[in-house]
Amino acid sequence: MEKACRDCHRIVESWKSVCKCGSNSISKDWSGYVVIIDAKSSKIAEQLGIKREGRYALKVR
């Protein structure tokens, strides 16, 4: 089961306890899913405040 970072919403592998952003606030309780391929030209990434490519949860509790 994948987890999501509460700070940046990035999806992280279940065995990891720290996100790439440096946060250790990881949650199993998340919903929604978006994949950002080109963060610089993506309107969705801009609206969500995402600056890096990757997989993100839309809502993290």
Ordered list of secondary-structure elements with their pairings:
Elements: E1 3-5, E2 11-12, E3 26-27, E4 30-31, E5 34-36, H1 43-48, E6 54-56, E7 59-60
Antiparallel strand pairs: 1-2, 1-3, 4-7, 5-6
Description of the molecule:
The chain has 1 helix and 7 strands; from the N terminus they run βββββαββ. The mean pLDDT is 95. It has one domain (3-60): Rubrerythrin, domain 2 (Single Sheet). The protein is globular. By secondary structure, the chain is mainly β. The protein has a 3-stranded antiparallel β-sheet, with no helix packed on it. It starts with a strand and ends with a strand. A hairpin with a 5-residue loop joins strand 1 (3-5) and strand 2.
Key features?
single chain, 61 residues, mainly beta, Rubrerythrin, domain 2, three-stranded antiparallel β-sheet, 1 helix, 7 strands, globular
Q: What top-tier CATH class fits best?
A: Mainly Beta
Proportion of strand residues: 25-35%
**Rg, please?**
11 Å
| CATH second-level architecture | Single Sheet
Q: In angstroms, what separates the terminal alpha carbons?
A: 16 Å
Summarize the structure in short:
Helices cover 10% and strands 28% of the residues. It has a single domain (3-60), classed as Rubrerythrin, domain 2 (Single Sheet).
